Amino acid sequence: MAKWTAKHEAPEPLEGPVVATITGGTIVWFVLFLVQLPFYGWFADRDLLWWVWCCAAGGVLGLIGIWYVRGRDAALKRHAAEAAERAEAAPHVG
Q: 56-93: buried (b, 16+ CB within 10 Å) or exposed (e) per residue?
C-alpha cells in the first residue's frame, strides 16, 4: 500500500481568546450541572444520572483546561518578549 502524502501544507493554527473560550465553556458545564441538581430524583428514576455527572465532569475538566491554557498563554507571551529582546539586542546591520 502506498504511503499517503499531503497535497498542500497545513494551514497555521487559529489563535483567539483561548482562555476566555475555555472559561466560558467551563461556566456552561457548571450551570448545566446546577440546573439539573433539583431534578436529581427524576434522573435517578430513569437511570439517567450520567447526564448530571457528565456536566460535573465537564466542569472539573474545564478547570484543568483553564489552568492549562493560562500556562500556555503565559509561555507564549514570555517567548514573544524574549524574542523581542533578542531582536533588539542584536547588532543592526546597515
A: bebbeebeebbeebeeeeeeeeeeeeeeeeeeeeeeee
Q: Does the predicted TM-score (pTM) go above 0.90?
A: no
In total, the chain counts a number of residues equal to 94
Q: Write out the three cell numbers for 73.
A: 498563554
- 38 vs 4: CA distance, rounded Å: 53
- pLDDT per residue, tens digit, the chain (94 aa), is 678 888 888 888 888 899 999 999 999 999 999 999 999 999 999 999 999 999 999 999 999 999 999 999 999 999 999 999 998 887 766 5
